[in-house]
Design brief:
Blueprint (H helix, E strand, L loop, with lengths): L22 H29 L9 H7 L3 H29 L3 H28 L22
Helix pairs in contact: 1-3, 3-4
Protein name: Succinate dehydrogenase
Keywords: Heme, Iron, Membrane, Metal-binding, Transmembrane, Transmembrane helix
InterPro entries: SQR/QFR_C/D (IPR034804), SuccDH_FuR_B_TM-su (IPR000701)
Length: 152
């Protein structure tokens, strides 16, 4: 019968332990912190979009245009996009680490996850910051009714 020696949890690090930034620890902390902030952002988003106004029937192109005319809501929606997307990607990374036993497959999954997250963050941010409901030079019949008709 052999005995296994387990280090005391509070013992100093041995020579064989890894040094540097503990990414798993920071990922864990991010999930908790972003989760708390996301609860506030999501309930604020739902309240403004569904409760404070006329409900879901009032959400249309003009509603979004009016909302994104205010810099506060641009920042709010950007924070919601970034926190939610990175939170979800980090959760998926954890699932891939837990269930993908093949190292090559795990690398492919995590690479695809990273690429898709970066692409969606870039596209979503571009949509929020470049949104113009009344683009200059657009045909008048394609513009929403609230755009100035005489705009060049």
């Amino acid at each position: 019968m052999s005995t296994v020696n387990i280090e005391t949890p509070r013992a100093p690090r041995g020579a064989g332990t890894r040094r540097g930034v503990n990414l798993e620890k920071w990922g864990w902390i991010y999930m908790r912190a972003s989760g708390v902030v996301l609860v506030v952002l999501i309930f604020g988003h739902l309240f403004v979009n569904l409760v404070a106004g006329e409900g879901v029937k009032a959400i249309d192109f003009a509603f979004v245009a009016g909302k994104w005319a205010d810099p506060f809501w641009v920042v709010w929606d950007t924070a919601l996009l970034w926190l939610a997307l990175i939170h979800g990607a980090n959760g998926m990374r954890t699932i891939v680490n837990d269930y993908a036993s093949n190292a090559l497959l795990r690398t492919i999954f995590k690479g695809a996850l990273l690429v898709s997250t970066v692409v969606l963050l870039i596209l979503g941010t571009l949509v929020i910051y470049t949104f113009d409901p009344c683009p200059v030079g657009a045909p008048a019949d394609l513009l929403p009714s609230f755009c100035e008709a005489g705009r060049p």
